[in-house]
Amino acid sequence: xxxxxxxxxxxxxxxxxxxxxxxxxxxxxxxxxxxxxxxxxxxxxxxxxxxxxxxxxxxxxxxxxxxxxxxxxxxxxxxxxxxxxxxxxxxxxxxxxxxxxxxxxxxxxxxxxxxxxxxxxxxxxxxxxxxxxxxxxxxxx
Length: 141
Prior knowledge:
Elements (H helix, E strand, L loop, with lengths): L1 H9 L13 H14 L13 E2 L7 E2 L2 H13 L16 H4 L4 H9 L1 H4 L7 H10 L10
Parallel strand pairs: 1-2
């Protein structure tokens, strides 16, 4: 998957993963950006196998944030037999997407203290509670 996602960069057809046309990572990035802009909890394309837990046989045992970081890091590696790479001056993808590793790790460590069954912004938790016919979720306040 990573090989295919990096092909347009290695072929020097684009400069970064967001402009890497016809790749699954571009579709995942666009879906993540749209969900974030709309404050939605679903941020994975329905047309692709989702990232998920290792116990889920219908998911890739990896987080989307980790895959984005790994793809970005791999794309920056200069390969002697390839003409393209992500320039070192290009902002890292996780920063462009607003993913903070420290905040994410803190959320995971204290998940049950901050949230109940769902996590997200106040608005997305309200929408989720409403869609499940609940009045509130822990974490909404």
